[in-house]
Specification:
CATH superfamily: Vaccinia Virus protein VP39
Order of helices and strands: EHHEHEHEEHEEEHEHHE
Largest sheet: 8 strands, mixed
Radius of gyration: 17 Å
CATH topology: Rossmann fold
CATH class: Alpha Beta
Strand content: 15-25%
Distance between the termini: 43 Å
Length: 245
């Protein structure tokens, strides 16, 4: 965690408490939104998919269990990839950076990024790599946090927590970025009720959202900020975009 000049941060997506809270999916909406995204993607039998920012591979396993698709997962966290390999065994999970995908051009029919795009260091480069590795008319499916107010605001809060809560975009900025990197946006849908459900679960299980964050960080949370009282109005979205050839 980043305290008194230390550089190490608490990675929310690596925390067992957050995994437990979200039934292993580590994001609002869970597999319900995964299924919705895949439905809009309209994939054919034997389609090849990539879960980018796959964590331990819960979505990869879900897709392999419930769909006639081939799915690989890539994540930058060696801890999560190793845990996923131990938990799921035969899944194709790879440690790597989204900014330099270790796959040939036109490898995949679809790419999922579920609550992971906001964590990417170079979003433009990530979209270029996704565009490269998608087949013609390939589909990108995004679920993530976004800012609901008109003016983009900096999230000033507990910098010791690394999560998608710290760098949400506005939907119009995301739309512009996708268009500039070779994608046509086919769906942009608000799914904030899933975020509300996750916060409600925090309260039911831990007494309050602030108490949950205190358990994660093992320190008092700055009263100026928690995911529930931030001045930045948080929302959650589902976006489906098609590769423009």
């Amino acid at each position: 965690m980043e305290i008194m000049g230390r550089e190490e941060k608490i990675k929310l997506y690596e925390n067992p408490l957050f995994e437990e809270l979200t039934d292993g999916s580590i994001r609002p909406g869970g597999f319900q939104l995964t299924m919705k995204a895949l439905e809009y993607g309209d994939f054919y039998s034997k389609s090849k998919l990539l879960d980018l920012g796959c964590g331990m591979g819960a979505t990869v396993d879900f897709i392999q269990q419930h769909y006639d698709y081939t799915c690989a997962g890539l994540d930058a966290s060696p801890l999560l990839v190793e845990k996923g390999k131990k938990k799921y065994g035969s899944l194709n999970l790879i440690e790597g950076k989204a900014e330099a995908l270790p796959f040939p051009t036109a490898s995949f029919d679809g790419v999922l990024m579920e609550c992971s795009f906001s964590l990417m260091e170079s979003k433009e480069k990530v979209l270029q790599e996704v565009h490269r590795t998608l087949k013609p008319q390939g589909c990108l499916m995004l679920t993530d946090m976004y800012q609901r107010q008109q003016e983009l605001m900096a999230v000033d809060g507990n910098a010791g927590i690394e999560s998608c809560l710290m760098s949400p975009m506005r939907l119009k900025d995301l739309d512009h970025m996708l268009q500039n990197n070779g994608f046509n946006v086919e769906l942009m849908e608000d799914e904030t009720h899933h975020l509300h459900s996750m916060v409600a679960s925090m309260i039911m299980n831990f007494g309050s959202a602030a108490d949950f964050w205190k358990m994660i960080t093992h320190q008092p949370v700055d009263d100026r900020w928690t995911p529930c009282n931030s001045k930045v109005k948080m929302g959650y979205f589902l976006c489906v975009a098609r590769k423009r050839n």
